[in-house]
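quick one, 279 residues, struct below
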Amino acid sequence: MRLWSVILAAATLACGCAATAPQETGPCEILFPYEWVGNIDRARFNEPSGIVFHAGRGTLFVVGDSGDICEIRTDGGLVKQKRIRRGDFEGVTYDPGSGLVYIAVEGEERILELNPDDFEVLREFTLPRTFEGHLLLKAGGQGIEGITFVPDAKHAEGGTFYVANQSFGLGIQDDISGILEVEVPLRSGTEGHEEARILRYFCPGVIDLSGLHYDKRTGHLFVISDSTNAIFEFTTAGGLVNSWAFPGDNQEGITADEQGFMYMAQDSGGVIKVKWNRE
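---
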């Protein structure tokens, strides 16, 4: 895609390569800054597709393609695991204001609200497929693939969700490769099944958006693209801040803890932990 096909090809040379001629940006500079820790998935969780670090509990929540969720420690030790129901769980996040956990269900375009103590489903929220009269999330399309919560003390609902819709074409108007800001009646709603509302969206110009992470330190969104093995840093308004070639394989979930570690859920298996070498 545009310059990325060239960038990613160069990135395969990896760090440690010797520069043969002066250049403005070398391959090592476009690799995500990390130190490898390893695969911590001691629970052997089936098809990990979403992950979030819950700061209130100091643990990780992981969801999978068959409707499963587990809570693990940051060393990979299993806390508990449960199959919620049939469904393609593709992303997970949490609201630090309430501590509740939220799961994005692909195909249904639905968000489940869970009690993290026992994994009881408390409420469900359905995303609209249209925005201002335009179809964005086509039924039968790839569906929502990533989710993250952005807290806002001034917002009536405590914040908003950002949801990634997966698409493998940049010109598809009715099934966009885009990121949507979604308002959900977290505080005002009382019913078991309610409707969400799309506030706005932006298209980052990359296909196969597979995971989202809100970084409270910068206030930015970190977005991964599975098929391009890339990670992008965006403002919540959609402005590109940075981009790197990303480690791992079949990356479908991303999160970071408060100790400077990043975790990736790989759909092909494994939860990868790396040390995030931030500036």
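Residues 2 and 21 are 24 Å apart (CA to CA).
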